[in-house]
Amino acid sequence: xxxxxxxxxxxxxxxxxxxxxxxxxxxxxxxxxxxxxxxxxxxxxxxxxxxxxxxxxxxxxxxxxxxxxxxxxxxxxxxxxxxxxxxxxxxxxxxxxxxxxxxxxxxxxxxxxxxxxxxxxxxxxxxxxxxxxxxxxxxxxxxxxxxxxxxxxxxxxxxxxxxxxxxxxxxxxxxxxxxxxxxxxxxxxxx
Length: 191
Description:
Helix content: 25-40%
Number of helices: 5
CATH class: Alpha Beta
Number of domains: 1
CATH architecture: 3-Layer(aba) Sandwich
């Protein structure tokens, strides 16, 4: 079993903001990766979940319904309930240091200041899980992250994001099969 957690903030006002790139990614995966159930709210897990399979591997997609800074509460509850070890968890989140269209796959890395990731590391008591970092910085922007993370993507950026999410959908099966070097090469290459 593999748990894929997309980070974001719940609520209409955050729906298509840059900070919700993780939510947008897991929704794309739900619709395009295979046969996944509709989202259902699991209050005891503080998350919306969708279940499906890739080949024979059961996959749980999750969108924490806590705010970003408390994502660890949902991640820990999900890991415990589904009995998933951290090495079988992938977290998809926004990265304000990367420009839109850039992605990185990392494992066993610190949060680099991302409060949602920090919360997950603290709650799981480890950083030994996969992270798919999706760039959200506008092209050539020198603004501070707090000046754009809650802004919506521009139409041209949404087209780029669609390509990013297609790339993510291509590497998830590789990650679940342990083909990490191949997945890393795909994710870390430019679009």
